[in-house]
Structure formats: C-alpha cells, structure tokens
Design a protein that fits this description.
The structure is a homodimer of 147-residue chains. Chain A has 147 residues and is mostly helical. Chain A has a domain of 74 residues: Orthogonal Bundle (Multidrug-efflux Transporter Regulator, Chain: A, Domain 2), CATH 1.10.1660. Helix content of chain A is 68%, strand content 3%. Chain A has a two-stranded antiparallel ribbon with strand order 1-2. In chain A, a hairpin with a 5-residue loop joins strand 1 and strand 2. In chain A, helix 1 crosses helix 2. Chain A is elongated, with a radius of gyration of 24 Å. The interface between A and B is large, with 55 and 55 residues. Chain A binds a DNA duplex (30 and 30 nucleotides) through helix 2. Chains A, B: Pfam families: MerR_1.
DNA sequence: GCTTGACTTAGAGTCAGCTCTAATCTGTAT
DNA sequence: ATACAGATTAGAGCTGACTCTAAGTCAAGC
C-alpha cells in the first residue's frame, strides 16, 4: 500500500540511514510496518516528514522535535505547549533571518570591494594612502556597514 | 597596547577557548603576541573577527574561512578567487534565506492552527469530519501552504 | 622570594547528527 | 531449492566545532 524506506528516502530527499536514525530517535512513531517488519510509509507520513524537515532546517534539535511529536500523540492536553513551542521557534527563526540579512550586507559589500579590486588588478585601489593592509580594508568595510 | 584573550572574548562574544581554537585552525594569523608570548588583540583584529563570525554564522566551514584568510595574505594574485568565493557564498546565503522564509510560513500556519485549537479546547475544531488524526491536520496545513 | 592569577600549549573529551558495518531475515525470480 | 535484492537491528565510526584539562610560563603584588 505505502512505500519502502528507499522510496521514502528518494521522495523526502533524506537518506534511508537518516530515516532509520530519525525513527530510532522517536521522530517517526506513526510509520507502520509490513507483516515482514519493514517500514511502510504512507501518504500522511510524508507530511510529518515535511514538518520535521522544516523544523530541522530552522535549527530545532532532534530532542525538541521528539518532544513535539510526543505531545502530538498525547492529544488535546498538550495543545498549549505545542502553541508555545511554535511561538518560541518563530522568534528564533525571525532572529536567524535578521542575522542572515545582516551578514548578507557584509557579503554584498565584499563583492563590491573585490569586483573593484579585480577590475583595478590590485586591492590598493581601495586605499586612500598608497600602502594599507587587508586588515584596514576590512575596517573601511565595517565602517561602511555601520553608516 | 592591544588587549588580552579574555578581553577579546568578552568583546567579540566568543569564548577564549574558541579564539584559541580559531587561531590553531589558522583563522587568526594576524594576531600579534606580547614579549611574554600572550596574544595581543589590536583594533583591526576585531574587524577580522567580525568578518569570520559573519561567515561562520552563514554556515561557512572553518576550512573554507581558512582558505580565504590565506588568500588574503597572498595578495593581489588571489583577488579573483576571493571574489568568486563571495559570489558562491552569496548564492548559498540567498538559498538559506529562501528556505527560512518557506519554513516560516509553515510555522506561522501552525501558530494559527494551534491558536484556534487552544481557543476551542480541542484540535478537533480543524476537522471537517468528527474524528481525524493529527497527521491529517498536517495534510491540510501543507495543502494550505501550497495554495 | 613567593604566591597568585591569567596566560600558554598539546591533546583529550563532548556533542549532535548523521553514516556505515555486520549479521540476519524475507519475499521474489529462476 | 536457491540465489539475490533489499529490508531489519545493534552498535561502531565519523565529522565539525567546539570545550575542557593538565602541565607549564610569566608578571605583578605582598
């Protein structure tokens, strides 16, 4: 009816090793078994995997995801905890996004900086004086980003 | 003149252990030493640290950062490589940002979902039928995000 | 002169998250 | 019947990035 672990791996983009590891860690308690004892991934399992992958990629550790999965199985008594978990995680992801944007600015500056330097054939093009170091070009870069 | 490793740790937000580790890994070849052999962080070192931290936080592995630092010390012959490195990294960070935004949508949906469920006192508020599972609520969630 | 505190190094330990190995089992094709 | 492909498990191994320990050095204050 469902599919095997290697098919599930292909479809989810994870490896079969990783799926077994997640299962061992208690992240996939909903995955059924065939009479032979093989895992049998059904459609809804991929939706769980989707959510797990989303939480993982935003930096949630396996043990926190397990906690959430367990809450889901405990029913309505844990609704509040689950909501709070997502609110906490939302803040963390917002912070990550702000951090990425901040770093992106520096990267963009560096691209400008090195584009100019490559054009000129020398990093010295960025110096007021004739002889500054790479360190002081970084100074200017950071100063530029502050303003 | 400059400052000690523990002062540098405080100022950079890293630990002294981490600074020594970075140095051992070749990320801080520009940091001077006092006559006693102690590291002596000067102003420009913090700008390097700033850049290293930015690259680290956007997922660049230590060995790639070391490669970049080495290129910087080799002078103008490596300008092209440095530019290409930043262009590659820019793409990676853009992908990360897109990924974060995608995951954020799911998290936002979940917050809506659990807010409603907490209000109602039961997850069943999200079911058309009287008795669906948590898995099928995830189905609806993903479907909602596709549209 | 000696203690104290902060520094140094080499190298061991920790942790998360896989990744792989070895031994075994099972269903299908010849 | 037998081989084979692909599944299973327990548990070992790996990688990256720290994190800590142990043993030793050095400068300043009593």
């Amino acid at each position: 009816m469902g599919c095997t672990i290697s098919e599930a791996a292909k479809r989810s983009g994870l490896t079969a090793y990783t799926l077994r590891y997640y299962d061992k860690e208690g992240l996939l308690p909903f995955v059924d078994r065939t009479s032979a004892g093989n895992r049998d991934f059904k459609e809804s399992d991929f939706e769980w995997l989707n959510l797990i992958t989303c939480l993982k990629r935003t930096g949630m550790p396996v043990k926190n995801i397990r906690e959430f999965i367990n809450w889901c199985r405990e029913g309505d008594a844990t609704l509040q905890q689950r909501l709070m978990m997502f609110l906490r995680h939302q803040k963390e992801v917002q912070a990550q996004m702000a951090e990425l944007e901040h770093c992106m600015e520096k990267i963009n500056y560096k691209i400008w900086y090195y584009t100019k330097a490559v054009e000129a054939g020398t990093e010295a093009v960025h110096n007021k004086d004739t002889c500054e170091t790479a360190a002081s070009s970084t100074t200017k870069f950071i100063t530029a980003n502050v303003s």
